Amino acid sequence: MKIEESKKNRYLGATAIILAATLWGFDGVVLTPRLYNLNTGFVVFMLHLIPFILMNIFLFKEYKKLKDFTRSDLLVLAGIAFFGGALGTLAIVKALFLVHFDHLSVIVLLQKLQPLFAIILAAVFLKEKIKLRFIFWGILALIASYFLTFGFQKPNMIEDVNLIKAALWALVAAFSFGSATVLGKKALNRLPYYTTNFYRFGLTTLIMFIYVLVIGKLGEFQNVTSTNWLFFFIIAITTGSGAIFIYYFGLNKVKAITSTICELFFPISAIIFDYFINHHILSPIQWISAAIMILAIIEISYKRKKVK
Questions:
Q1: Residue 144 class from Cβ within 10 Å (0-12 exposed, 13-18 middle, 19+ buried)?
Q2: What is the pTM of this model?
Q3: How far is CA 113 from CA 60, 73, 93, 157, in A?
Q4: What is the CA radius of gyration of the chain?
């Protein structure tokens, strides 16, 4: 009976992660790019403000935990909010806006390099050992990411300037989300995932409010169209806080390698949505590069989990 229940939980967990990953793929290709008429910083502010307001309805009691937080807890949560919320989201939204509906699936795929940065950062800050196998797969992933972006053609610094900038921003996003992963690992040793996410969204909202205020874009509210509001709320309910809670629900029920494989539905779904909605398809060399990069990421993630 327990075996059947355990199997049921694994299937449920895997399904939840696949659903969350698919929602993120849909967001990266279909939803967030439709907000391109607004300032990037303002968009990131709104993408955290609305979900945080919704979270307060269900998680208002989380404020009571503030008095129990140690200085270390606060620093880790602030780091997650800065890297995983503010900088990471700013970078990926900037990248998506730069390509303006072209190469969206490429940008989403580049973002999947985050395990590479997470392991490097874990080696630096958590003193985890880096093995020769990781160096091999890491270099292979980076080489594949180049061909995924530019194919066999040498990038033109004038004609491809937006694609080059978008690719660099996607790498900044991968680094930032990788940093948040390392910090999140530390936070989850002490705090429940819903507490971590509540304060991640709250602190990110505060950081982005200050940022938008400093750059003078708080008046961007007057430029928000009814369509923009619709997309903001759809993202807030589905791919924003909704997908994150679904993801962590599933993560608690499956093994690490299972979650790594299920998360591949993120770039896969992005490619599918980009084809059916934006009518874009990867070239043969991009398909091969994407496959090699995904294989490298699986190897990097899997070998790391086995060592732990």
A1: buried
A2: 0.82
A3: 35, 27, 16, 24
A4: 19
